[in-house]
Structure formats: C-alpha cells, structure tokens
Design a protein that fits this description.
Blueprint (H helix, E strand, L loop, with lengths): L5 E6 L9 H11 L9 E6 L7 H14 L3 E6 L9 H10 L4 H4 L9 E6 L5 E5 H4 L3 E7 L14 H8 L2 H15 L5 H11 L2 E9 L5 E7 L1 H18 L7 E7 L13 H4 L14 E7 L18 E3 H4 L4 H10 L10 E3 L2 H10 L11 E4 L7 E5 L3 H4 L5 E8 L20
Parallel strand pairs: 2-3, 2-6, 6-7, 9-10, 9-13, 10-11, 11-12
Antiparallel strand pairs: 1-14, 1-15, 4-5, 7-8, 13-14
Length: 422
C-alpha cells in the first residue's frame, strides 16, 4: 500500500470572540443583582472539560462572590472522572489550572452524595453533599452539542447538575436510566428537580467558537436557566468546528483524550456515537478511523478508543484500564472502552485502514489527518480531496503536497510547518 500525498489546509470562519472575558463575567453577575447574606458559603461547581479561559472565568466568579461578602469555594462536578475519587478530581482540576493557590479559594472535593428525592418519572436524584449543604451553588460550564444524543438541552449547565454534581453514583444512575429512556428524558428532568430543591444561585454558560475561543458568556438565575441554555446551544451549534467532508475513507486522529472531548473524540466530528440508547447519525460517514495516541493529561483514560477501527501500540501502552472502565461503566457505554486492532506503529495502522476501505488506490484515497476533534482550524487532506475545496472561501491550502512524515520508527508527530511538510 502506498500513501496519498497530503496538503495542509486552514479553515476560517467569521464568528464572534470575547476579548475581555473578565469584564463580561463581571457584567453578567452584576446584572443578576444578587442579594446574599454576609459570610454565606457558596459552592462553585466546576466540571472537568477543557474550556477556553476556564480558570480565568472560575477565578473571576470567585472574586466577584468574595466582593459580595460571601465565602466561595470550589466543588468538582465531574461525575466519575478522575477515577471516581476525590483526590483524582482535584488532580483533574489542577490540569485545568484550577488550584486553591490560583483561585484564591478552597477546593472541597468528596464523592459523597445525598438523595434529594425522586422525580415524578421515578429517577432517584443524587447530588454532591458538600454542594447541597452550602448556602448557594453556582454552575459554570460550556454549552455545546452532546456526544451521545441530540436535543434542545444537550451538554451544558443542566448536564453539569445531573451528571457532574451527581458524582460517581449520580452519574451512574442517570446513565442507567438513559439506556432505556434516552438522555432527553433524563438530563432535563433531573436538572429541573435539582433547580427546585437545591440552593442554586445562578448558572454561567459559556459558548466557544470555531477556534475554541470564548464567544458568548451568559448568566441566568434558576428560573431562566433552561431557556437560556437552549438558546446558547443553538448558537453553539452554529459555531462548532467540523471536518468539511461528508464522506471519507480514512480519518487519522493524532490524539484522543478527556480534555478534548468527554468521549475522547467528539462523536459529532467523527460521525460515530456508539451508544445503545441513541440512534447513529447517517452522516458524516467515515469508513475507517485510526487513533494514534493519547493526549497529555488524560491520566490513562482512553474512553472513546472503541470508536476507532485501529490504534497503535504507543496508545495502548498508555491506557489505565481501571480509569477507562470506571468512566465507561458509569456512562453505560462499554462500547467506547473497547480496544480495537492494535498495530505496532502509526504507519502500520494507517496502512491497514486504507486496505480496509475497499478498492482504494493512492490516487483516489479520501483521507484526512487531524490533531484531534477539538482543534480543527488546520489539518491535512489527501490529494483526492483538493477538487472539493476549490472555490470554498472558508478553506485554503497553506502547504502541500507531500507524503506523510513518518519517523524512522514508523510514527507520526503532529507538526504545522510554516511552508511545507518535512
């Protein structure tokens, strides 16, 4: 098997960006006109997702709450992440730059939950004990398309309530019910129950643009939170980054990991959901997916590896099977933890992928090489795809054509050359 020549392309989009994040966060909080008793203990619920300006936003919230005379602290709201341990979740926050020293407030981490009650549809509602016993809860999370289902409410503040603040037990409970009912009948239902019963002060929703930069920041009190999130999700879907091809033979993903997506690689990008509770999307349709490596700061969590058809020895050797199993089982998605056929090098894996696409030749192979499913401004496309981007004002060729730059060991390193591939 010979490999197609590749060109480096750049996608562009004229979409908004917030330059002064601190000022906007302050303005949004001020607009809520909060009246809080002095020395009130306020829990800031922080998830595990990699979010642009995440630490800056959390610190600004903490500073504003202190200015109001309260005593804020941070609680991890990340379900089963961090190997479902209090210490592990503190470590996850640390990778996001969220530490007690940086934030200027304590971090109170515990996996203990209390049951607030049961929804009218019979779902037990579990929530972090420390958070619910505080004088108020602040939610801060990015609003985006979910990787497991479509709906008016997907991934955002409502999910942070249901799964994040539910800790391991709550996340597991929600996912178990979703297997039969679907997430649309679980996440909003549980979140509404919590908003009625728990001392939620407000939520701060963040939307990112195509370039993974903060585009929208919006605060909402509990009675407006759901409708606010619906509107933010509509805006988020307009801005989300995608691979601009409906069909491909091979997608090479340089790295997967939790900081990239909750499912390791975004299902909306790779076109695979692999969740028994939800139907698969018809498009995009990518015949073979190759996952080459685990991103840094994943602590061995390889959730999402099951969506790949082939992987490499270097990725598999980095897997923490316990952490991966905990995450997949809590999410009721054992499919996403399955280890695919493992090849000794990137070159071997890509060769096998091309051979498994039918009668594909070097000249007609439709192949894309991306760094990950989050950073899609620049990536490589095969020669056969060049005619399809001609005339597209949002995509330009910035380097090419050249062969894949395999090292002596047969592996690839992600590089973005100034002029051409090495």
């Amino acid at each position: 098997m010979r490999f197609p020549r590749m060109a480096l392309v750049k996608q562009s989009s004229d979409i908004p960006v917030i330059e002064d994040v601190v000022t906007v966060v302050r303005q949004e909080i001020a607009a809520l006109n909060l009246k809080l008793p002095g020395q009130a203990r306020i829990a800031i619920a922080v998830g595990s997702r990699g979010i642009s300006n995440h630490a800056l936003v959390v610190k600004t919230i903490a500073d504003e709450l202190k200015a109001l005379g309260t005593k804020p602290f941070i609680v991890p709201a990340m379900g089963s992440h961090g190997s479902a341990t209090a210490e592990g979740q503190i470590m996850v926050l640390e990778t996001l730059g969220i530490t007690e020293k940086n934030m200027g407030v304590p971090i109170c981490s515990s996996m203990e939950v209390v049951q607030l009650g049961t929804t009218a549809t019979g779902i037990p509602v579990l929530i972090d004990k420390i958070a619910v016993e505080s004088d108020g809860i602040v939610l801060v999370h990015r609003v985006k398309a979910h990787t497991d289902f479509d709906g008016a409410i997907e991934s955002g503040m409502m999910k942070l309530i249901t799964i994040g603040l539910g800790n391991h037990q709550g996340a597991q409970m929600a996912h178990r019910f979703a297997v039969q009912r679907g997430f649309n009948q679980v996440i909003p239902v549980v979140a509404r129950f919590v908003l009625q019963k728990a001392p939620v002060l407000f939520g701060l929703g963040l939307v990112e643009n195509f370039y993974h930069k903060t585009a929208i920041i919006k605060a909402a009190k509990p009675d407006q939170l759901e409708e606010t999130e619906k509107e933010l999700l509509r805006e988020a879907k307009k801005m989300m980054a995608r691979i601009p091809f409906v069909t491909l033979d091979v997608v090479i993903v340089q790295e997967i990991g939790k900081k990239i997506s909750g499912t390791g690689m975004d299902t909306n990008v790779v076109g695979r959901m692999y969740n028994v509770a939800e139907p698969e999307a018809e498009f995009p349709k990518y015949t073979r997916i190759v996952a080459l490596d685990l991103a840094e700061d994943t602590y061995g969590n390889a959730v999402g590896i099951g969506m790949a058809d082939l992987t490499t020895r270097r990725l598999v050797d980095k897997i923490d099977y316990k952490a991966t199993a905990i995450n997949c089982l809590a999410g009721s998605v054992p499919e996403k933890g399955r280890v695919p056929i493992t090849m000794e090098s990137d070159k071997d894996a890509i060769t096998a992928a091309l051979m498994l696409c039918g009668p594909v030749t070097q000249e007609n192979a439709r192949m894309v090489w991306i760094k990950n499913t989050l950073e899609l401004e620049k990536f490589y496309i095969s020669e056969a795809l060049l005619p399809e981007i001609r005339g597209n004002p949002n995509i330009e060729v910035i380097a090419g054509l050249a062969m894949l730059p395999f090292a002596a060991d047969g592996n690839l390193s992600w590089k973005l050359p100034a002029v051409s591939m090495p």
